[in-house]
Amino acid sequence: MRDKDQITAVLTNYATGIDQRDWTLFRSCFTEDCQCDYSEMGAWRDRESITRYMIHAHSGPSLHRLSNASIHIEGDSANSRVYVDALVTGPKGIGGAQTLGYYEDTWQRRDEGWKISARRFVPVRLKFLGLLGLIPSFLALPIAALASRRVNAALNTKNQNTKNQNAKNQNTNH
């Protein structure tokens, strides 16, 4: 398989991993130390952090469509830009949002294949669905960003509490 085809396959795995809640497939798209910046939605500095966020941010059905991939390869590194049209709904498909934008990715070839080592999501438009659709588009992104910050803060607190409990358990066992 050619390099561009392999990178395109990883992009497809990314979208499929999210939409089918196959978090092992999703994780396989990134290097362990990937740097991901999703604009106002948040930034993550490793594969596990972005995976935790995506698990919590996708509580209902979703559909991620990627298109217009432009891929440039130099040796074991590559850069790409791909358009994304993502429909993400709330639990049981109630409410949600449609996000349009593009991903700018930096890639590294590893022993197991091409992996995203850095990603920047550039939002172009965010439209809420359902009753939230009454919110004007120019307010949608700031509101979504606030919700994302709350999810990220809750995940960080949960992570810290787990680490503290693990440390406490280790001290008790010794």
UniProtKB/TrEMBL annotation:
Could you tell me which Pfam families the record lists for this protein? SnoaL_4
Show the stretches that span the lipid bilayer. Answer: 128-147
Answer whether the UniProt record assigns the keyword Disulfide bond to this protein: no
* SUPFAM superfamilies, sorted: NTF2-like
Protein's UniProt keywords contain Protease: no
Q: Which UniProt keywords apply?
A: Membrane, Transmembrane, Transmembrane helix
Q: Which residues form the SnoaL-like domain?
A: 2-120
Could you tell me what this protein is called? Nuclear transport factor 2 family protein
Q: What is the lineage of its organism?
A: Bacteria, Pseudomonadati, Pseudomonadota, Gammaproteobacteria, Cellvibrionales
